Automatic annotation (TrEMBL):
Transmembrane segments: none
PANTHER family per UniProt: HTH-TYPE TRANSCRIPTIONAL REGULATOR TRMBL2
Any coiled-coil regions, as ranges: none
Pfam families: TrmB
Domain of life where this protein originates: Archaea
Protein name from the UniProt record: MarR family transcriptional regulator
Limits of the Transcription regulator TrmB N-terminal domain: 23-95
């Protein structure tokens, strides 16, 4: 059983799971990545340094969290050119309704897999 499947199974045992736990379970992310997502919702367009300061975390940890969140399509990254030359990346959390839709799609896919396993069972 994969870690994601184990998380889904664990989540099913909770009567009223918190949204944050569902987010972690569905996307296979850690609590600190969830905190990063929610903080970025408040600070749209932040750089890694700005977000690290807001979260009181090391920049390398925040950078890794943002990379994971980008992979999961919960965060988008845009490059902004600086006046003096060079560039910086700004990060934007996808709106909660969009994250909810992604979560619904993932749960629907998982549910189809479970229904398939149920249908396969038998003599």
């Amino acid at each position: 059983m994969s870690e994601r499947e184990q998380r889904m199974e664990d989540l099913m045992l909770v009567d009223s799971p918190e949204f944050e736990r569902i987010l972690e379970c569905v996307f296979g992310i850690q609590a600190h990545e969830t905190r990063t997502y929610f903080r970025l919702l408040e600070l749209q367009g932040s750089t890694v340094a700005e977000l690290a300061d807001a979260l009181e975390r090391d920049r390398s940890n925040v950078n890794r969290a943002l990379s994971t969140l980008c992979e999961k399509e919960l965060v988008e990254r845009e490059r902004r050119l600086l006046e003096g030359g060079g560039y910086v990346y700004q990060y934007f959390a996808v709106p909660v309704p969009e994250a909810q839709e992604l979560m619904h799609q993932a749960v629907d896919e998982w549910s189809e897999t479970v229904h398939g396993r149920i249908d396969e069972f038998g003599p």
